[in-house]
Amino acid sequence: MTWLTWRQHRKQFLFAIIGLAVLAAVLVPTGRSQYRAFDGSGLAACLRTMGETIDYRLADTDCHEPLERFSAEYSGDFAPAVLLIFLPLLVGLFFGAPMVAREVERGTHRLVWTQGTTRLRWAVTKFGLVGAGALLLAAAYAALASWWLYPIAVAHAGRFDYLAFDVQGIAPVGYTVFTVALGTFAGTVWQKVLPAMALTLVGFVGARVAVELARPNFLPPVERRFPVVAYTFPNPMLSDWILDRNVYDASGQVIVPGGDVFCDPPCPEYDPAAYNVHLYQPAGRFWLFQFIEAGLFVALAASLLALAVYRVRRRIA
Amino acid sequence: MLWLTWRQHRTHVLFAVLALAALAAVLVPTGRQMHRVFVDSGLSGCLDAMSRAEFVPEDATDCGAGRFADRYGLFGTVAIVFAVLPLLVGMFFGAPLVAREVEHGTHRLVWTQGTTRLRWAAVKLSLVGTVTLALAVAYAELVSWWLTPLARAGASRFSSLTFDVVGVVPIGYTVFAVAAGIAAGTVWRRMVPAMAATLVAFLATRVAVAVARPHFLPVRERRFPVVTDTRPNALLGDWLLDYGLYAPDGHKLRRVYRASCAPAATESCPYLPGSYNLHTYQPADRFWLFQHIEAGIFAALAVVLLALAVHRIRRRIA
Questions:
Q1: Which of A59, A227, A281, B67 has the smallest C-beta neighbourhood within 10 Å, fewest atoms?
Q2: How far does A40 lie from chain B, in Å, by closest CA?
């Protein structure tokens, strides 16, 4: 059974490895030059020292200049990086969806089941081996993408920002496990490759969008209030995930929606009692959120796999 | 044959129309809100007035474009995701078109009922082609409209991946992806390999053309002195390709966007007299020309791939 599974999927693995090698061939050299610029421009050191103080003055030594230099060179890399969010979908489409659907569509499962291999053993071996392969792949590309994106994400809008969060850390591993499980399950329901793939696509997009929208509320956001008219304002290099920013006047009315205002005293345009409110998730919660997100998707994957095993045992003829 | 093709693909079409409706349900309300803010905040009018002069005074307003771009930055990121829509259409519409029939052997039934291979291919290709074209036009229009305010307030409509999801290029990509899927299906004749081949062909071609894009037409140069009290107008929307500070003898000193000294402070200016800044760029008014060149390249590739597919259907598939 192990040999059979390997024999059925070795081509896919070969392609996946080639794909991974191509990705590495692009990311490793560009990443190395990025890191050289990141360290060489003094940005890395500056962010390390600046990333700790909360109150910040414009006159303080800031990372503005090295940040500009670094961003001018590399900020264009952020957009293509966002496309890495589709890697889990590809693994789910090509590894997950055909796993059961292709066998059932062609009737090849019957040959195996009448040779003394139980349905349970068939399902466990297939899901286990292909799943383990997908997991290894996912770990490899997640590690590669996390390493590569780190400097750009830090220089852009923080590692916590929408879609940057999604290609780093362990979240992509969770997405991949989920998508493969979803594809497998879809194959036990529709039992044809193309509809199973379409269902995987829809399920992936649906689940990802839903969790993306829920993510800001995994934990209650923290509020930070600070005056408009002051010499100091919160350090923009803390990499917090700022969810909402508004300016209020003394009576609590919003005067600037969706923005913040800093003004050195004396500042005639603004009432001295006016204040900014930021609603944010602190940068220190990054890994906690990664674990919550990955955990959610792994839990979904476990239930889908259980359903798939159930359907293989009871429903497929 | 018409009825058969419709019958084989109607779930596909239903699916695509639902997806388009879901996309519209997200984009229309958010887009209307963004357009409203764009006009009401005076940004739209200000950009119209400001985006004419090549150089503007040092303290010229940016019309609040920076704040607007910050506020709606997430929309720009989400728009990047739309770059994969043509690929999905190619994988799910193009690749199975021939591959599924041949994999299941159903093409033989049709070919032995008096329908010629050419007629079979022509009807299938033209029907599926028309439907995908209509879909592509619909989503390209929708995304272009949605992204307009952000593209005008942001760096440039040319900037990386904004160019790729607006205008006519998404239509070119879609037609190409579908053609690649069909051709892959006539070569591999099984669905999953055909889909994988579509994926690889699409990615490779897109990357190759995107790398060539800055050189579709000769770049222009903008040279301006270090000692000046004006700066290049960033609101023009030119596609800036390279920039640097040059010594009077023409060799590049540093890669900076702009080095400058106010005319009043010439004595303390650290740069050699006669140093200049040099920007190379594609002007903003070439946007549609570039769109048509890029879409044309992909449409031409699509025609070649379709001809290959028809040839293989007529001669190679048994």
A1: A59
A2: 15
**Cβ–Cβ < 8 Å for B317, B186:** yes
Q: Which of these, B203, B196, B171, lies nearest to B181 by C-alpha position? A: B196
Same domain, A149 and A99: yes
Write the pLDDT tens digit of every residue in A74-84: 777 777 788 88
What amino acid occupies position A59? A
Say if residue A166 is in the same domain as residue A251: no
B227 close contact with A: CB closer than 8 A = no
Tokens of residue A94, six digits: 């090509």
Please give the Cα distance from A152 to A8 (Å, whole number).
Answer: 40
Q: Which residue of B has its CA nearest to A91?
A: B196
| Site of tokens 């007299």 | B273
Same domain, A275 and A298: no
Is 0.85 exceeded by the ipTM?
no
pLDDT digits (tens, 9 = 90+) for A138-159: 999 999 999 998 888 887 767 8
pLDDT of residue A55: 66
Q: Is A9 a member of any domain?
A: no
Is A4 part of a structural domain of the chain? no
Number of CB pairs, chain A paired with chain B, less than 8 A apart: 50
Of the candidates A79, A90, A157, the beta carbon closest to that of B160 is on A79
What is the least distance, in Å, from the CA of B97 to any CA of chain A? 11
Token couple for A153: 């994400």
Residue B313 binned pLDDT confidence (cut-offs 50, 70, 90): confident
Which one of B71, B100, B256 has the shortest CB-CB distance to A258?
Answer: B71
List Cβ neighbours of B130 (8 Å cut-off, separation of 6 or more): none
Residue A244 domain boundaries: 222-283
B181: closest CA among B254, B226, B124?
A: B124
> In this structure, are residues A57 and B55 in contact, taking their beta carbons and an 8 Å threshold?
no
Task: Answer yes or no: do A228 and A100 share one domain.
Answer: no
Helices (H), B112-190: 117-153, 169-188
Residues A147 and A158 in one domain: yes
A180, pLDDT greater than 80 = yes
Beta-carbon separation of B195 and A73 below 8 A: no
What integer pLDDT is reported at residue B32 of this predicted model?
Answer: 92
What is the pLDDT at residue A210?
92
Asked if residue A10 belongs to a domain, the reply is: no
In tens, the pLDDT along A91-149 reads 999 998 888 888 888 888 888 888 888 888 888 888 888 899 999 999 999 999 999 98
Put simply, whether B96 touches A (Cβ < 8 Å) is: yes
For residue A276 the two structure tokens come to 């900014």
Domain shared by A56 and A160, yes or no: yes
Say if the Cβ atoms of A15 and B196 lie within 8 Å. Answer: yes
Q: Are A258 and A312 in contact (CB under 8 A)?
A: no
- Read off φ and ψ for residue A63, nearest 5 degrees: -90, 15
- DSSP H helical segments within A156-218, as ranges? 171-190, 193-214
Question: Mutating which of B192, B198, B240, B258 best tests the A interface, going by the most A Cβ atoms within 10 A?
Answer: B192
The number of distinct structural domains making up chain A is: 2
Shortest alpha-carbon distance between residue B289 and chain A (Å): 23
Using only C-alpha atoms, chain B has a radius of gyration, in whole angstroms, of 25
B207 touches chain A (CB under 8 A): no
Residue pLDDT, tens place only, A158-168: 788 888 889 99
Amino acid at the residue B280: T
Q: Are residues A132 and A199 in the same domain?
A: yes
